[in-house]
Amino acid sequence: xxxxxxxxxxxxxxxxxxxxxxxxxxxxxxxxxxxxxxxxxxxxxxxxxxxxxxxxxxxxxxxxxxxxxxxxxxxxxxxxxxxxxxxxxxxxxxxxxxxxxxxxxxxxxxxxxxxxxxxxxxxxxxxxxxxxxxxxxxxxxxxxxxxxxxxxxxxx
Length: 156
Description:
It contains 6 helices and 6 strands. The chain is of the alpha/beta class. The chain has a domain of 99 residues: RbsD-like domain (RbsD-like fold, 3-Layer(aba) Sandwich), CATH 3.40.1650. The mean pLDDT is 93.
């Protein structure tokens, strides 16, 4: 166990998140999503809902600032403009973690599946609500003043 980290951030999930580069996508999906069939890398957090998993991930994962819609949701099949509560919750959690407004794009179900196949990893949750399926584009971490100073003074 590590100090200061959400307990949902186990070794497997931290390894996946740390291995991602800027612009890589991770999918967070509900219990009905065909995660095992589509994933290049699969992390199972099936005892947890989307909101809990999103809070844990967004506590360490920067969200991309260079794309128009760094969050992508799966569209409701019968009503593509509908935003179910699980989707509005994830957007609120992401915006709170980032401290800025974010744009959430959307894809029809089959196009979402195709894009999820190319995701760096899929995190399968136990979310019971439908349409709890998201793609998140990882951003970069800017250097902190202290890190720059340590680098400049490393040889002194």
